[in-house]
Amino acid sequence: MNKITSKVRVVVGRVKGRNSETPGTDPPPYIHDRTYRISRLLSMVLLTFLLLLSIPALVLKVYGYNFIEINGEMGFYLVNKESPGGGNHAGDNLVAALPHNIFRVPEKLVLVVAMLNILLSMAHLGFVVWDWRTQTRSFRRNAMVLHVVNSVFVLSALIGMSVAHRDSSTFQYQLIPTEPNAVSPSGYRYYRYDAGIFDLETWTCELMNAPAVGDAMKDYSAQCQIEVAGRMILVPFFLAAIALAGLSIWALIVGGKPRSHNEQLYTKDMDLEAAKQVQVVEVELDTLKPERQVDARLSKIEEDTEEPEEAPKEAILPVKAMETTTESVGRTNEATESRIGAPQPPQ
């Protein structure tokens, strides 16, 4: 009956063990090797670099967009260079500060892309720092998709700014309208340059060297430097986004390769220590006796400590044989005495 009960317990224990196992595949291993550390370090460096480039790109384009909005209804007087001493206004020749046709979409596109990159780089950098040791394969796949899409956005902004600057017209003093062609909200009529289409960089850089603009050359010169810096910063900005996309693809490919068992040890239960490396030495130390654990290290046998010598096997065998012989002789004598003392049946 006891044997049947023990067998039933063994079967029940096996069934419970199978039911308690977490369904699904094994968790992704945490790879603690040189390749993984290099990928994490490069990710932090490139994310920081992308963040440091996104902030000035956003600030510079905010200055440019603000210049367009503020000076939309502003203007300057044409200076009569032929008058003695200069500085005299040629009648009512008030010219608008901005041309009639100006590219606005590239400026807004760069603003949106820079803002998205700030949010993306901060979120990814924070996740890398906070969850350094337990990043899973699914996160690497999501990061790859995000950075590839982000690189496409940055490329679109760079192409938009380059095309707008290439197709921009040039300012010519002779093309200013001879008759006022614009009216302010107050009803004042003025001149607005309407020949061609400009981007803000070309317009400001053309007028910063025009003597007829007068004192407005200083404002145009400052804005021209801002616009040039805003367009130039898009080149390293795009390179950083491409480098991050390539690094994320490489991390996904390398992270998905199987490793040998001596490099990664992990448990099947996702709730315990999934994707974490287990040190074999620490596991062995837990199984040792307390007196063998000294400062989490294996205690060495001191020289003064004398351990008892083990008896040779050849000496142990005869002793065991003699004990067995004595026990068998004793049992034989007891059986004989029991037969003699037992009553004999009548003949």
Cross-sheet strand order for the largest sheet: 1-2
Q: Please state the average pLDDT score.
A: 71
H/E order of the elements?
A: HHEEHHEEHHHHHEEH
Total DSSP helices: 10
The separation of the N and C termini measures 45 Å
Please describe the biggest sheet, giving its number of strands, its sense, and whether it closes into a barrel.
2 strands, antiparallel
Helical fraction: 55-70%
Strand content: 5-15%
DSSP strand tally? 6
**pLDDT < 50 runs, ≥5 residues:** 21-31, 82-91, 258-285, 295-308, 313-321
Q: How would you sum up the global shape? A: elongated
Task: Work out the radius of gyration.
Answer: 43 Å
Q: Which structural class should the secondary elements be placed in?
A: mainly alpha
